[in-house]
Specification:
- With 214 residues, the chain is α/β, with parallel strands linked by helices.
- The protein has one domain: Alpha-Beta Complex (Spore Coat Polysaccharide Biosynthesis Protein SpsA, Chain A), CATH 3.90.550.
- The chain contains seven helices and nine strands.
- A seven-stranded mixed beta sheet has the order 5-4-1-6-8-7-9, sandwiched between helices.
- A hairpin with a 2-residue loop joins strand 7 and strand 8.
- The longest helix has 15 residues.
- The protein starts with 7 loop residues before the first helix and ends with a helix.
- The relative contact order is 0.17.
């Protein structure tokens, strides 16, 4: 249970930190374990997400003991074979449906995006309710961020069918079937959805972190 569990937003929205990929572009080892100013990348995401949602899980196909310090449920992909972020979304939707049946929404946080803005979930939920959306995708600096999104949990059955029967793997192809809203966030003084894919991205993240600390 997260620190935001008593808020109205926290009661409506569960969260998943997506750490299920293979980090091919980063090199050897799990990317989310890399350190930024003395803290693992995923630590930043857990800290922020804990204040945003009522229930938080980690989706990962890595050894669950790596996450023991966070005291959060760790759930491996329900569709095997490293099927991409959609598999993590599906896994989390099904977990919420089974464990928090009154929760209508799921919000996703990538484990390699340490600067996701505070208030992210509240703003995404407000957009969904205002525009009648089934999915809300975050955007910044002219780019959408499909894994930074808010999802209606009751889309789980549709998503499973698409992944199993159609071998659907691309987020954009699946989300275009539904009422999708895009919510723009300011990229000043930095892109809040900056994610770390390569070692050189970690150097830029350190500069952002130092600027924030200053």
């Amino acid at each position: 249970m997260s620190k935001n569990s008593d808020s109205s937003t926290g009661q409506k929205v569960a969260g998943v930190i997506l750490a299920g990929g293979q980090s091919r572009r980063f090199g050897v080892g799990d990317k989310f374990l890399k350190e930024l100013d003395g803290k693992m990348l995923i630590e930043y995401v857990v800290e922020r997400a804990n204040f945003e949602v009522g229930n938080l899980i980690i989706n990962s196909n890595s050894d669950a003991s790596l996450f023991k310090a966070f005291d959060l449920p760790v759930v491996a992909d329900s569709i095997k074979g490293y099927a991409g972020p959609l598999a993590g979304i599906l896994t989390a939707m099904e977990w919420v449906r089974d464990h928090v049946p009154d929760c209508k929404w799921l919000v996703s946080f990538p484990s390699d995006a340490p600067f996701v803005p505070l208030g992210y979930v509240e703003k995404m939920l407000a957009c969904a309710e205002r525009e009648g959306a089934e999915i809300v995708c975050a955007a910044s600096a002219g780019r959408t961020h499909p894994v930074c999104a808010l999802w209606q949990v009751d889309l789980a059955s549709d998503l499973r069918k698409a992944m199993v029967d159609e071998e659907m793997r691309k987020i954009d192809l699946w989300t275009q079937r539904y009422r999708l809203s895009v919510l723009e966030f300011s990229d000043q003084p930095h892109d809040p959805f900056f994610n770390i894919n390569r070692p050189e991205d970690l150097e830029l993240a350190e500069q952002i972190s130092q600027n924030l600390a200053g």
